[in-house]
Amino acid sequence: MDDIFGIPLPLLFAQLLLGLINGAFYALLSLGLAVIFGLLNIINFAHGAQFMMGAFVAWMLLDWIGIGYWGALILAPLLVGAVGVVIERLMINKLYKLDHLYGLLLTFGVALVIEGLFRNWFGSSGLPYRIPSALQGSTDLGFMFLPNYRGWVVVVSLVVCIATWLVIEKTKLGAYLRAATERAELVQAFGVNVPRMVTLTYGAGVALAAFAGVLAAPIYSVNPNMGANFIITVFAVVVIGGMGSIMGSVVTGFGLGIIEGLTRVFYPEGSATVIFVVMVLVLLTRPTGLFGRA
């Protein structure tokens, strides 16, 4: 069989791959958002800008210092996460006892400042970032050729998402983090430095966004608007999965990426809005999201 409903199989598989790649980025970015909201109750609208910073730091490490992709995959999330720690210490920690709207407005302003600075420094045109030599080329799967780098992105995103879920749900550190969101004074009584833990949690969420940015650099052009192109869709993914739900963000991110890819095949005109249609349907039937709790 060479086609399904008149759609050539190579085209179908190509769009499914594209959907999986987009889903990998949706999952990683929504994971960072879910960590920050679920544990800190802050809606981090600067997440897209921090994703963009990860890509730019990877580019700068290569162009200015000569540190390649593999080094940037470690250094860029650490550097951008450190910037997130500074932002949390100077601004965000003042808002934890206030309404969510204040955190949303503050991080939205931070995003605009970051994007404006990078636009002034580097302009709006995209900067190229080459695929590392070890991941160049493609693999023949029999029914299609899979670009090695895109396969790597899907696999490493899935591994990072599962590892993050295991840390938060199955370890003592995760138990402390979850307990601190409800009874911070009780956790502090056990000798845990809750403010430091909260700061590092925000930094870790930012580092996840930066890690996704490094992965995205060889696929999308590195430009100041790359985060803004993702963040609205990622917020929709978080809402559908359930605000603060780690597993919900991962499953929904990959799932909606595949749905988006299939929509491009069977109804291309709806591919840009299908995720938001799903969001409306989910909110009408389950306001807390697919995996969320009231």
SSE layout and pairing:
Layout: E1 3-4, E2 7-8, H1 9-40, H2 47-65, H3 69-90, H4 100-122, E3 138-140, E4 145-147, H5 148-170, H6 172-180, H7 184-189, H8 194-216, H9 226-241, H10 246-266, H11 274-285
Antiparallel strand pairs: 1-2, 3-4
Question: Mind explaining what this structure looks like?
Answer:
With 294 residues, this protein is mainly alpha-helical. It has a domain at 31-124 and 193-285. It has helices at 9-40, 47-65, 69-90, 100-122, 148-170, 172-180, 184-189, 194-216, 226-241, 246-266, 274-285; strands spanning 3-4, 7-8, 138-140, 145-147. The strands form 2 sheets. Strands 1-2 form a two-stranded antiparallel ribbon. It has a two-stranded antiparallel ribbon with strand order 3-4. Helix 2 (47-65) packs parallel to helix 4 (100-122) and helix 2 crosses helix 8 (194-216). The longest helix has 32 residues, at 9-40. The mean pLDDT is 86.
